[in-house]
Amino acid sequence: MVISKKENAYFQFLKLEPLIHIVIWVMVLFYPYVKYFGKEGGYNMPFTHELLALFFKMTISYFLYFWFFPKNNKKKNVVILLLFFLINLAVYEWLDGFYHNQFLESCCRHYWKHFFANSLTHTSFGIVFFSIYSMKKLYKKQYELDTLNKEKRRSELQALKAQVNPHFLFNTLNTIYSSALKKEDKTAEMILKLSGNFRYLLHEGQKEEVPIKKEIRHIKDYVSLQEERLSSKVKVDFNVTIDNVEQNIAPLLLISFIENAFKYTSLLKGSNHNIIIRIELKDGVFGFCCINPYNRTIEEDIDNEWKESGIGISNTKKRLQHLYPNKHELQIDDKEDVFKVTLKIIL
I need a surface site. Which of 67, 245, 332, 335 has the fewest CB within 10 A? Predict the structure, then answer.
């Protein structure tokens, strides 16, 4: 699953980690030569001595890194760790004695002094690799948390879409049913447009984002469908101004507001009620405005239907919060017998 367009910090660390290890061991290997560089006689130990020391430092470090640190119950494995640590040091001191002429003096106090000093050195490397392991584990936990949050968010959005789609289809099917009862010639054309809406809902509507031109085409089909059904009831002023038709946007964000406009306008008495719909996109800023006549007293007569419409708008608000947090402004105003929805999104 893709977490972000930018690479997650955990995967960045995984790519960088081999380089961190290489830098550490190169510094350890060549440190004595750098320390004594320019001094008379230089560093008088052969390179094989440094390779030997490097091998045993790496052995204890990676034993901790790959075996001990990942253990869930470390207390049960402390004895094994101490045994490995002591054996690792003892073998190293024995081999190192050949380079210091200490092999025959292995029991003297110089041996144990050197043994203790190296035990501190190896412990220091354990601390260094514990820091690396802890940092890696922290990044991994954050990645797992981000993944869970993304999955939770995706599931919530899919649940919201599942509630929006049946509501939209129910209203549209009612439109065609009404036309079929009247045996109107335009029923076939309305069914064709509905099939286009089905395709959009089933395919494009399930995507996270779609080109804005597809969303507008879907809205135009819906508006056209409603205009044919309510030809004597409504007059639609629909205007679109887009400077980038390929700009992506989340699908099905506007349809509940437009459904709501047609629904309540159709319930008003009289004819030629104006519905104004404005959609624009300029420099990555998306704007939507929908204005329709509104009679508050109708709510009492169609309480159940009003609740159904309210679900669609409520879901759209939730989706906006999920998809465009701190990047959108939604204003709904129902004063003076006019219902107005204004939405602005920074894409």
Answer: 335
| Amino acid present at 71 | K
235-269 per-position pLDDT tens digit: 999 999 999 999 999 988 898 899 888 888 888 88
Q: What are phi and psi of 10, to 5 degrees?
A: -65, -45
Residues in CB range of 35: below 8 A, 6 or more apart: 43
- What is the rounded (10 degree) CA torsion for 52, 54, 59, 62? -170
Residues 37-73: tens digit of each pLDDT: 767 667 778 889 899 999 999 999 999 999 999 998 8
Is 179 buried (19+), middle (13-18) or exposed (0-12) by CB count in 10 A? buried
CA 298, chain centre distance (Å): 43
Q: Where are the alpha helices (DSSP H) in the chain?
A: 9-35, 47-63, 78-100, 109-181, 187-202, 212-229, 255-266, 298-301, 303-323
Name every residue whose Cβ is closer than 8 Å to that of residue 229 and which is 6 or more positions away in sequence: 175, 178, 179, 190
| CA atoms of 166 and 95, how far apart (whole Å) | 78
Which two three-digit tokens encode residue 61? 């470090």
The 10s digit of each residue's pLDDT in 278-291 is: 999 999 999 999 99
In the DSSP assignment, the letter for residue 65 is I
- Which CATH number fits the domain 184-346, given the four candidates 3.40.50.300, 3.40.50.10490, 3.30.565.10, 3.40.30.10? 3.30.565.10
Contact 30, 96 (CB under 8 A): no
Q: Please say whether the dihedral angle defined by the alpha carbons of residues 301, 307, 309 and 310, taken in this order, is positive or negative.
A: positive
Lowest mean pLDDT among 15-24, 70-79, 134-143, 194-203: 194-203
Domain boundaries, the chain: 9-144, 184-346
User: SS3 of 248, please?
Assistant: strand
**pTM, 2 dp:** 0.55
